[in-house]
Known about the structure:
With 375 residues, the chain is of the alpha/beta class. It has a single domain, classed as pyruvate-formate lyase- activating enzyme. It has 15 helices and 17 strands. The strands form 3 sheets. It has an 8-stranded mixed beta sheet. It has a 6-stranded mixed beta sheet with strand order 1-3-2-4-8-7. It has a 3-stranded antiparallel beta sheet with strand order 14-16-15. The protein binds iron/sulfur cluster. The site of iron/sulfur cluster has 10 residues, from loops. Keywords: Lyase.
Amino acid sequence: MSSPSATAGAVTPPDASTTPTTAADRLLRIGAVYAEPEARDSERGQQVLSRFPGAEVIEVPSHWQIPELHGNEGNVERWVRVKSGTLVLGVKKSLSARPNGRSSDFIAPSTSNGCAMACAYCYVPRRKGYANPITVFTNIDKITRYLRGHVRRQGVKPEPDQVDPRAWVYDIGENSDCSVDALVSDNVADLVATFRELPTAKASFATKFVNRELLDLDPQGRTRVRFSLMPESDAKLLDIRTSPIPERIAAIDDFVAAGYEVHLNFSPIVLREGWERDWAELLTRLDDEVGDAAKQQAAAEIIMLTHNRDLHEVNLGWHPKAEDLLWRPDIQQPKRSQSGMWNVRYRNAPKREAVARVQDLIAAHAPWIRVRYAF
Ligand code: SF4
């Protein structure tokens, strides 16, 4: 750590113009770490800092109060530079596991939030301002202890549901992408190890990044990875900084062989001219390329796009082409989210028709995919 007691200031992340050598380098070239003192001094905090020895360390009173990072204004052009050049270390104060019922039974307390990737439709930054770098919570021992207690209190799952026939499933990546988080700290490894020893529960996370270091974590079937997939042409425009779709598909068999349960996250489904043809192509490709072991355990969730007016405005400033696909007032309607934000989603009729159409396409081209839920 080069300057542990510096006060928060306008630190410019490193120039991203030098040639990266690995996928991790491409995503993260950390030049500044904003740290709460307790987080900085913790074992996990020191581990993270040791991975980025050249980074300047800037003390901050709270991981939530870093206006020069999290503010929206003036950061549009710097968005990606902030994401790739900056980390935050904090301590997660209140721990709770929220009931979910869709992708999981419970949302586990976050061990991180923020993301170094920059999908144009991402809801993760909305709570914290838009240039939303990764915040690592360093009190991982407390979080895994809480999770073990929560799992114990649930007892045995009384009956199967769409989430899982037997296990209580905990989403460990609601506010981040765990595959990228694992480049930054051992929090994900610790979560995988925790669930390995919980026979009544599973961890689960959706991801758009292939981190092959995860193949060494020995999950023994207690962690479910949900690879997010969409037609390649959509991903090229919308999934900024993520692993390409062919790389995600190619990883499926390897993750199954390494002991993960692998599901598919068809999300978001974006309605545009030609979308059905391109989804049919993607499903056919999956049918051709995925092995039998992966097919036997496969399941998918289907999630239609929701978007947000504020994010639309921000995107117009840096990636207006994405908005041609995402912002469709002709077929969208406003909807107040659980957190009180005004989002837009496809109107009821086109949405209903599209959900049915996706299910038909799956039945026609990849009938081995069990649809867990669609909305
Ligand atoms: S990978 Fe996930 S968390 Fe990261 S920007 Fe994309 S949608 Fe958001």
